[in-house]
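## Example record

The block below lists the input lines for one assembly entry, exactly as stored, with component labels intact.
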Amino acid sequence: MSRIAPNQMTDDLLRPLLHTTWKFYAGVAVLGSIVLAGLGAWFYQVYMGLGITGDNWPVFWGFHETNFVFWIGISHAGTLISAILRMVDATWRRPVTRCAEAITAFALMIGALFPLIHLGRPWLAWWLIPYPSERMIWPNFRSPLAWDFFAINTYLTSSLLFLFLPMLPDLAVVRDKTTGLRSKIYGLLSLGWQGTPKQWHRLEMAMHIMAIAIIPIAVSVHTIVSFDFSMAVVPMWHSTIFGPYFVAGAIFSGIAALIIAMALLRKILHLEAYLEPIHFNNLGKLLFTMSLLWGYFVFNERLTTWYGNETHEMAAFWITQTGRYAPLFWTMVFCNFILPFPFLAIRKLRTITGCVIASCGVVVGMWLERFLIIVPSLSTKPITYSWGRYMPQWPEITIMIGSIAAMVLLYVLFSKFVPLISMWEMKVGEHPEVKEAASVAAAQEAGELL
Amino acid sequence: MDRRQFIKLGAATSATATLAGCGNPENQLIRFIPEDDLIPGISVWKPSICPLCSAGCGVLVRIMEGEAEVIRNGQLGLIKMGLAKKLEGNPQHPVNQGKLCVRGQAALQVTYHPDRIANPLKRSGERGSGQFQEISWDDAIAELVSQMNALAAANDQKSLGFLTRPLRGQRQRLVAEFLSRFGAPAALDFEVLGEDVMRRANARSFGYDQLSTFDLAQSRYVLTLGADFLGTWNSPVSQSVGYGEMRQGRPGIRATFVQVEPRMSQTGANADEWVPIKPGTEGVLALGLAHVIMAARLFPAAAAGRAGAQVAGWANGLPAYTPQEVERITGIAAARVERLAREFAEQRPSVAIIGGAPLAHTNGTFNALAVNALNALVGSIGQPGGVYFTPRANVGGAQAGTAQAGRTIDKVAAEILATERSPIQLLMLGEANPVFGTPPAWRVKEALAKIPYIVSFGNFLDETSSLSDLILPDHSFLESWVDDVPESGAMVAVASLAPPAMRPLHQTRAMPDVLLDLGRRLTPAIELPWQNYQAMLQAAFSTLPAPPAPAGEEPADVWRTAQAQGGWWGEVAARPAAAAAQGQAPAAYTEAQFDGAAAEYPYHFLPYASQQFLDGSLAHLPWLQELPDVLTSAMWSSWVEINTQTASQLGIVQGDLVEVGSGQGTLRAPVFVSPAIAPDVIAMPVGQGHETFTRYASGRGANPISILAPVLEAETGSLAWAATRVRVSKVDGDGGLILFGGSLREHSEEHR
Amino acid sequence: MQESSTATTTNGPAKWGMAVDLDRCTGCEACVTACHAENNIPTVGANQAAAGRAMHWIRIERYFEGEFPDVHVKFRPVLCQHCDNAPCEPVCPTYASSHTDEGLNAQVYNRCIGTRYCANACNYNVRFFNWFNPIWEKPLHLQLNPDVSLREVSVMEKCTFCVQRIKEAKIDAKRDARPLADGDVKPACVQSCTANALVFGDLNDPESAVSRLSRSPRGTKLLGDLGTQPKITYLQREG
Amino acid sequence: MRKWFILLLTTVAALGLGWGFFGENGFLRGQSNTGAARAQTSPIFTTAHSSVGEAVRHFFGIRSEAQQPIAYTHKAHLDRSITCDTCHTGVNTGPQARIPDIRDCMECHEFVAMDKPVIQQITAMWERGEDIPWQRVYGFTDEAHVRFNHAPHIRADVECSMCHGDVAQMTVAERVVDHTMGFCVNCHTQRGASNDCLTCHN
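Predicted structure tokens for the full assembly:
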């Protein structure tokens, strides 16, 4: 890791904030129109009814729910990188943390929209809020969907905090580097950060608490998302493995998304000096671990079902193994396991390109995994007379593309307003003498450095 | 604010209220003073009669207050009126005993159909173009009167024709009287899947020219040849009620039920044993059973009496029908024939039922006579658990003659086409649709087009009524006085009767009243003794015996009681069986003839009455269109059923589009691959394939009748609709088969 | 149906249930149309039916068994089983799907927000969703039963055991100060059933026709091993 | 070498996906129980509201006040010791209270108060064969899915005024009681009536 002078670093990392090219506007325009198309499709769906989607009897859930689980899964990137690595004090995490936390926040925002999008009557979603009324009816706390509501809200709140807290020193830098209205806005956002030892101390404390707290929250969120399925007696849903399986899958897809995002940022924002091959190498190793873990879970899930040979389960089993959904199933296995294996296991191939290819495979594969959990099971429920099938229609495809564009757009805008690499953490990392900044003096020094 | 101002204000708000009207255009319509006294939210149950098939089930109509758009004095407005909301079976009615079938339930939609003809119409475009303009009733009647007067003036009354589906009760009597007094020939009736063969056979075997009634509730063994008696044939509700009792109505006794047919019908699906048979050989099986029974001396040949005498070789114990011979002809193993025969003779009361396709072969009458003789042999005629003939109530004195014997639509069409000037100059059209329901070779549409003037009483524009020049729409059955004399299905005599259940929704008039009105306006007028149809019914029903009254009470007024309970029913003196006609040779087996060489057309084509649409006359009801067919689960579709093996030989899978070709034409429909049909049979439901029949049925699916050959049943001359052979080939294109059900089969372990 | 003089309202709430005699059922489907007429079930049309949106609160399932010529067919009317331990109920986040005192699985349309979770959880696939807002082409709207509300777009609906008829019978009985007798309540499907295969009544009354049939040795529950405790008993065919 | 390897794997993935979606047995193709599944709208379906504005009004429960065509004064009639169910018949026997039609008015006003302009207005309508287009003052929205039955409430001695206000003191009837669900639930709770959802909704 080459040493970069603090000033150089500030300039590099603030460049996107202070200089805007036409490419940015073009990008925002393109992404914005895709997002608007997605929103338009959603409003059309609200206006007409869910009939314009491909959902039907008996496959009442399709793309919307797939995307919901997919995005919530992606959101697990930040948790792992930031919280776990922060707790074990893995220093290589420093340039990666904010990218990861931003992915968490944005993926969660988009993911949390999908339960609303999938609702037939989204204008009544406020009935999930437990407010007292003279009608004396409460939300049904037995429903996994109600749990979702609380879990996702908790996770969203805490990950926004988790993103925002360590941003304070950097926002203060931007405040000081800019003038006029911008300075005032950043001033408000930085909550009066002055870099006093007391503030540093409190920030460190807060980050430690958050890091500890957010890990169980993240684990519980995806476990609860898995409960949406595993609580129902539907073939291949009613499974004890779903909690950890979903969490592992979430982290898996989260890391993949992070690798892709980092590679793009590195290219577009010229952060080659900050996001180095070592980061990709390390994340690649993590991804490889998760790929193996995922493969282990899939094997377990499939083997136990097959061995159990329960009539209703077998219908859903065979339709994915050899039936209508088999091509998608085997593509998923290929994308999640076979494709990443050489790129991540062989050191020579675990380059930035190699990691990105593996990650692309994983993102596609994990989307397919969610689809294959939802649709085949619903189309082969126990009563064979009611077997059916599902085919997505343009509104849900548009909404899905819109959600991907929204993710990119949020990221692009974020990169415009906040340095995507945590400057102060980088500086602390680059200058080991401030690393043990527990003392007031050290903290002061750090403050001066900024 | 003084009072005057207050009222002014009231008037002003009234104006704005009617204009603004919550944005609901209905509120801009004026409201008429209600004509009914109904309390909203409270239902009144009124009797009526289901008109959709010939079973004649009694229904109860649930009437509730509602708001309907109607025209009063030429103005459109809203009125609160009693509206029919639901039809249920009439629990007192002897035929259906409180039950109602799927079609009867849907009969409600006849009245409320969006494409119902609401006004008299006069043709405004080319004939058959479907272009009509509304005219007033006065103009419409005047036009018809002038047409009829012209016939009378030219002394050409004979060229007035009346084409209708078979009428019963006083409607039939009125039409007959009207025609005979005008000097016109009797009405020509037409039914797609008529039962003339069965009536003829019953007349020969037992002396009753009517369909049979079965006492299934007490049967121990039921053997059916082709008759879909639980679904579409004869009196399905009455038979279903009996079936339920026959299965589980008697503690410890459960009847055995065997169904013999090449394609499993809804009825066959309920059988304990389903026996596929070679089409057209059903009578041979019946005689084979009789042979075994007689050979085993379980019953003597003489036991069959008159019915046996109708079958050649009966008295000698039917030596030509040994089980081996039966196996050769029918394809049913000899051992099975013997077993069935013994079961049939030993598990009594037993009954054999024949109907549907077996009677629609060239040898249909033979098949029916054979089964009649078999029933007679085991003593099932007029015995509990056997075959009965519903006594006929003598309503209104002697029945006027039925339709002209032997004068069928094919002969009339040929006559019209053969002559320069059509022998029918003015055709009155009841609710018959022969253009849809006859083989193309009869050229009925062409013939009808040659008739100079056609007036229709139909409620809907279909293939036939769209050819008419004038349409005088009838009330729906719920809006008119209705009566009926069911031919079968009840053990007692029944004369159903009901007053209108609700006021007319549209500008329609009851056909009988139009005829009576017409008669008075003609020059010279037709003197019919009734002011209106109600008066005619009253006169007729007053002749029926009053039900026995409790001691000391006045006997109830028959007319009033009949109106209240939906008809009159009771015991009447049994009609003596008609004497056997002389000179009729006993029936002998002749091989059924099929149109089309077996080499070129390898498959038997078996059309069948669809569970939803019967003969196609109900395809306009959306409830029935969306009803999944019980065996295929198809909705809004037509399809052809092909045996699993045959399909795989032809490379056909479920839903593929195929072309079915006969010597008469081709049709295209998707395939339903079924394990429950013989490999050499292609079955297809009748009902879809309408060119013109409301928004729900037009242009949907294919009509199997359109490829039928004009083969006739040998004795009665009625259409042998099961006597066509076809070939099948897969063609490209979207089959468009819409199925409700997913898998055809269940998980084997499931539902222990 | 047999008349029984036993009182059912005197000993606490009823527990409504049904017995389906598969030996009587002929597959005639009268129940299906009767249900459409009684409960204002929308007709979705050919396109929607093709897309899997047809609504039939009660359906006759048909299963082929064996191959030609030894082929058999099994009919089974399937409607909401009104499970005592219904999978659809706990999953609804708003209590739109809930259990009543009388053991009905209620679907409260106004409370439904359209998650469709209940339909996924239901093993019997007897829940139907209003993918669009249904309209009735005039004057077909005049056929609508005023006792049953019209479900709008994005609302789940299902068999109610004709709760409007149950309510009416109870109100009438209370007005006349008499207990509800067995056979007073007949859902539309039961009333139309041509072969008397469907029997409805109070399972809490041991003498009611439905209770007696439910105790039959032929009685089974549909997917009974899932523990849903359905209140419909299927009496298997004999022979 | 590496490039070729990458290209190969990407192609395999793409082909797999393509096969999955569009292949012979792909989930976007092939025969199904629902035939060629098409999800376009059918002409017999419509959106629930005719305009977005109407939808918003429904959401917030905004309903326009009833504006009566005739300024009927309940007070004037009830003062003459006519009771509610004289005109609103059916209220104690069935689910709905009948809104009287012009025949009910003319029963008296063929003889009574003939000189008043409003009565003359009614008489003119009567002669034209028209009914008075009364507007409903109360009543639930379709979305409420309430099936209210008057008779059991009357039999339980619930006063008319409990739900309809003191109409006897009103001129033109106004909506003075808000029929919210809370209103119903409170009364049901107090009187020990069932609060089961299906008691009111079906």
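The domain at 16-235 of chain C is CATH 3.30.70.20 (Alpha-Beta Plaits). The longest strand of chain C covers residues 59-65.
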